[in-house]
Amino acid sequence: MTINAANDLPSTRHNFTEAAVEKAVTEHDTLKYHLLGPSLTKAGQDSVDQSKVSEIIYNASKGSKYFNNEEHKDKNLTSKIERILAKKRQLEQLDLASDLRRAEEYIAELELTRDLSQTVVHIDCDAFYAAVEELDRPELKDVPMAVGKGVLTTCNYHARKFGCRSGMAGFVAMKLCPSLICLPLNFEKYTAKAQEVREILAEYDPRFESASIDEAYLNITEYCREAEMDPWDAVMQLRAEVEEKTHITISAGIAPNAKIAKIASNRNKPNGQFRVSDDRPTIISFMRDLPTRKVNGIGRVFERELDAIGVRTCGEIYAQRQYLSKLFGEKAFQFLMQTYLGLGRTNVQPAEEHERKSVGTESTFHEMSDPQELREKLHWIAEELEKDLTRTQFKGRTLLHTYEVFTRQVIPPKAVATADDLYTYGLPMFCKLEKEIPGMRLRLMGLRCTHLISTKKNNHDFFGLRRFSSVDSDPSNPNGAHTSRSIATTRDESGEWEVWPETEFEAAAAAERRKDFLEVECLSQEQESHQGHDNPENSHSLTQEEALEESNRRHKHGREILPNPTPPRMRMDSGIGFRHHDLPNPVLQRKREEKEAEEDRRKREERPWICPICQRPQAAEERAFNEHVDFCLSRGVIKEAAAIDDDRLDAQCDDGNEHEERTILPVRESLSSSAQQQQRRGRPSGKRKAGSEVAAGKNKKLFFGKACV
Ligand code: TTP
Ligand code: MG
């Protein structure tokens, strides 16, 4: 069964969420909306009154440093939006006919690239860390439970009904759901379980693409063709297999490209799947009603900017097409037009083959103000980054520094990778901040290298397959990514590789989420330091050391890209190129056997069997053939045949072609291998075989006499 998105939209579930969000926005100010955090669109919150949640977050965090930062950021964004609106008013006075024409031309150009031939699947495990924990403690399945203490990394679907979600401070979540059980993180367990899931994915697409610890893209076009399965059924089977073997559930989205597949996988969460059919009208109508924030690459900042110019759904992008490039930059224009049309990449490849755009380390720590201590911390971060750069074999041409809310960029005179260089080029920025903010107190620092150069030996392709130009590949600068105005091309410098703006926007949105998470961690630590650790009943309480340990381990976790698991059959015949039918997948195996049997049958039917008695070709059908032989024998054909004169036999031989001749010979020689094979296929052993041997024996004279070879 295929659900057609056009008929399914908008679903009641989504209306509810949108309505709740809308309420939150209209009844409260933008800051309150901002405080709802990065996981507002997470599944399982349909019945949650988000305005109440934002009220609780607002009151719980008011007065904190975090709150002040958020307020500051919100004000900045509000001013930015005012500037955008002022610019739009100016543009409205101008003749934008040429911009309109260009947008139309671009849409027409994009339409030509639409590829509906591929079936891409996005899979995402349900409440992953929580699901893994529930395997060890099944009693937690029926109660609200979260993983992560200082900040929730996730929570089960019971907890989500209370408004708890990832990226929320533990103490805020406890206010929303006082019975919430918060478990500490156990990364080893999650990595092991993710690997079990990945083993299964490799059977459906060995070149699947891991997108995070619990999600992946697969291109199942070839699988479906080989297994002669409908994508819907193939994905049902994949999900059932994952649940049976790993005991966790996954949700999936099926679509003609990765962008829509990702949106679709969230549609029927948990433990569900959704398909957007591979026809243009369905895709266009699916996108038309989709809130912009549902698109991977549109974070909460971009969402608000678009909202300000009247774009709340992807369908509303079209009406603003003449303004987009001038307001948000060329890349954003391209990204938005592709989004409106529901276009996206169809290529899926192992994550390790993707170009890495940055390598970085962020760390949270006890609030510090001592200049020497802060310098030591900066050096420690530089050492950590050096380790990461060595492991991933990169140097960075650009260095980004994050000091709490400030992120600045430095271009050192040479590409950097050693801790000493990273520290040296990081320090001036730090000193500048120190001067600007006397008595600066910090709880968060980070260093990140971008514009990477590979240090791998024999690597001629320094920048990987996809080379991005300078402004856009800054993943920690989501706003910057769509304010770039200079890049109109969708090809890299060699002109060979398509550069999908979506990849960059997705990276920018991910960086936005990461930063949000870090800031909530600061809030959590701030709260812990105020309250102390004197309430053992409070299950979210952590000592400051534990909180820091949790935070720093979480940042490290999932960064390493593991190579895709090799399906067992491929491991056995290494050296031979992979073929789908080498897979041990039972369905493919069964299909293959059926195909072989069918082929065999077809061949047998095409080639007539020669009666060893009368030498005449007979239909290659076992029963009829046996009856015919019986008939020949019972009629004393042997006797008659022995009396046949040589002319008749010659005539028979002349009538018979080479093929018949070869078939006769084994019978003469009393069942040579070819005859045995024919018997195996056509004639059962036992009675028939005995009959035929008798016949062969009796025919000896006849056949030897007519040795026309
Ligand atoms: P997600 O797939 O985003 O969330 P989830 O699997 O918990 O829930 P859903 O059913 O909505 O998919 O993330 C996968 C895991 O990654 C999650 O279980 C915990 C971890 N994680 C973090 O550590 N930090 C984060 O900000 C998020 C969102 C997830
Ligand atoms: Mg998940």
Description of the structure:
The strands form four sheets. This protein has a five-stranded mixed β-sheet. The protein contains 31 helices and 14 strands. The longest helix is centred in the last third of the chain and has 31 residues. With 709 residues, the protein is α+β, with helices and mostly antiparallel strands. The N terminus and C terminus are likely disordered. It is 52% helix and 11% strand. Among the domains are: 121 residues, Alpha-Beta Plaits; 229 residues, DNA polymerase, Y-family, little finger domain (Dna Ligase, domain 1, 2-Layer Sandwich); 100 residues, no CATH class. The chain binds thymidine-5'-triphosphate and magnesium ion (MG). Pfam families: IMS (PF00817), IMS_C (PF11799). It comes from Ramalina farinacea. This is DNA polymerase kappa.
Compose a concise summary of this entry.
This protein is α+β, with helices and mostly antiparallel strands and 709 residues long. It has 31 helices and 14 strands. This is DNA polymerase kappa.
